[in-house]
Automatic annotation (TrEMBL):
The chain crosses the membrane at residues 7-24, 40-60, 81-100, 145-163, 169-190, 202-223, 253-280, 287-310, 316-336. Residues 7-331 form the Acyltransferase domain. Keywords: Acyltransferase, Membrane, Transferase, Transmembrane, Transmembrane helix. It comes from the Bacteria. GO terms for molecular function: acyltransferase activity, transferring groups other than amino-acyl groups. PANTHER family: ACETYLTRANSFERASE, ACYL_TRANSF_3 DOMAIN-CONTAINING PROTEIN. InterPro entries: Acyl_transf_3_dom, Acyltransferase_3. Signal peptide: none annotated. The keyword Ribosomal protein does not apply. It comes from Candidatus Accumulibacter meliphilus. This is Acyltransferase. The keyword Transcription does not apply. One of its GO terms (cellular component) is membrane. One of its GO terms (biological process) is polysaccharide biosynthetic process.
C-alpha cells in the first residue's frame, strides 16, 4: 500500500467515525436544529466494512502470516476497546439516567443477557437483536468480528475444508451477517485484484469523478429510502424489521460498489496529491489512532456529557460543548485501550504459539 493512499484511508476512517457520531448525536434534546451531514450514519458503517476488508487482506499478506499472529491481533484489536466500552457504557448510563432520564430511551435491563451477548459478539445472530444498553453502534463490531473469523478460516485452513467451514459458520450466524458479508469481502477483493493497481492514471481520474458523481446521486436521490421502502413492500413489515441493521442491504450493495470504485481510483490518484497528504499526515494519523474508541464509545459518552451539562438545545453551544468533552474523553480512554492493545497482542501470541504443545501434552 503506498503511503499517500494509506494517509487517505486513515482520513476516511476518522471522517466516517465522526459522521456516525453526528448521526447519533443529532437529537432534539441536545440540538434543536437538524445537524448538517447528519444522515450518513449507516452509510459510514458500509464504508468501514469495505475499508476493514481491505486492511485485513493487506495485513495478512504483509504482516500477519500465521494464524497465531492473526488471531492475537484481531482479539487484541477488538477486545482492548470492546471490554472497556462495555464497562463504561454501564457506568455512564447509570449516572446519566439519574441526571437526565429523558435522554435515555434505551434499554437498561437484562444485564446478564446483554453483557454475555456483547462479550461473545452474538447480539445480531439470526433474527436476534440485542441492544448493548445505550451503545447502539456496538452492533457493527458484532458483524465484523465474525467476518474476521470467516476470513481467518479461509486464509489459514486447508482449502479442502476452508470454504465448508467458513460457509458453515456464516450459516450458523444467520442471514443478517451473511447478507452484508459480500460488502466486507469487497474490501478483500479490492486488495487482491492486482490488475487494478496498474490502472492507467487517466482512467483512475475518470473513475474518481464517476464515483463522486455516483455518491451525489445516491444521496440526493435518496436511494437508501427508495430501495428500503420497496424491499419492505416485497417481504412485509415484520420480516423487514427482523433484518434490523441489514434491512438496507440493497442500497448498501450499491454504495459499497461506489466505495470500491472510489478506493480503486484513489489508490492511484493519491500519488498525485501526495504533497498535500504528507502535510496532513501527523494530525490524520493521530485522529485515526482513536477512531475505534470514538466509534465504540461515542453514544454513551455524548449522552452522559449531555446529561451532565443539561444545556439549552437552542443554537449549537450545547452540542458543541458536549462534542468537545466527548473528544477529550475518547483521547483519554484511548490511551488505555488502543494504545495498550499491543501488550495484549504480545501476550496472546506467546500463549497461542504454545497451544499446540499444550494440547498434545493434554492428549
Amino acid at each position: 500500500m503506498n503511503r499517500p493512499f494509506s494517509i487517505y484511508l486513515d482520513a476516511v476512517r476518522f471522517i466516517a467515525a465522526f459522521l456516525v457520531y453526528v448521526y447519533h448525536s443529532n437529537q432534539r434534546d441536545i440540538v434543536a436544529d437538524v445537524l448538517p451531514a447528519s444522515n450518513f450514519g449507516h452509510s459510514s458503517v458500509i464504508v468501514f466494512f469495505v475499508l476493514s476488508g481491505f486492511v485485513i487482506a493487506y495485513i495478512t499478506d504483509t504482516k500477519e502470516r500465521s494464524w497465531e499472529t492473526y488471531t492475537a491481533s484481531r482479539i487484541s484489536r477488538v477486545y482492548s476497546v470492546a471490554v472497556p466500552a462495555l464497562v463504561l457504557t454501564i457506568l455512564l448510563d447509570s449516572i446519566g439516567r439519574q441526571l437526565y432520564p429523558a435522554l435515555y430511551g434505551y434499554p437498561f435491563d437484562q444485564f446478564v443477557v446483554r453483557l454475555a451477548s456483547s462479550l461473545f459478539m452474538l447480539n445480531e445472530v439470526w433474527f436476534v437483536s440485542i441492544t448493548t444498553f445505550s451503545n447502539v453502534p456496538y452492533w457493527s463490531i458484532c458483524y465484523e468480528l465474525w467476518y474476521y473469523v470467516v476470513f481467518g478460516l479461509l486464509t489459514f485452513l486447508p482449502r479442502k475444508v476452508a470454504w465448508w467451514t467458513a460457509g458453515g459458520l456464516l450459516l450458523l450466524m444467520g442471514p443478517k451477517l451473511a447478507i452484508l458479508a459480500p460488502i466486507w469481502g469487497a474490501g478483500v477483493l479490492l486488495y487482491r485484484w492486482r490488475a487494478l493497481q496498474a490502472l492507467p492514471m487517466i482512467w483512475a481520474v475518470v473513475l474518481l469523478l464517476l464515483s463522486v458523481l455516483g455518491f451525489l446521486v445516491f444521496f440526493v436521490a435518496a436511494i437508501e429510502t427508495i430501495t428500503t421502502t420497496w424491499l419492505k413492500s416485497l417481504i412485509g413489515a415484520n420480516w423487514h424489521t427482523q433484518l434490523t441493521f441489514s434491512k438496507f442491504f440493497l442500497s448498501d450493495y450499491l454504495l459499497a460498489t461506489l466505495v470500491f470504485a472510489h478506493f480503486v481510483a484513489m489508490r492511484r490518484v493519491a500519488v498525485l496529491i501526495s504533497p498535500l497528504l504528507m502535510v496532513i499526515e501527523r494530525p490524520v494519523r493521530f485522529l485515526a489512532a482513536y477512531t475505534f474508541t470514538l466509534y465504540l464509545l461515542h453514544q454513551p459518552l455524548f449522552l452522559f456529557w449531555a446529561a451532565v451539562i443539561r444545556g439549552d438545545p437552542k443554537g449549537y453551544a450545547y452540542w458543541l460543548s458536549t462534542t468537545v468533552l466527548v473528544m477529550l474523553s475518547v483521547v483519554a480512554v484511548g490511551h488505555f485501550t488502543e494504545d495498550k492493545r499491543h501488550q495484549l497482542r504480545k501476550w496472546l501470541e506467546v500463549n497461542l504459539a504454545g497451544l499446540p504443545s499444550f494440547l498434545q501434552r493434554a492428549a
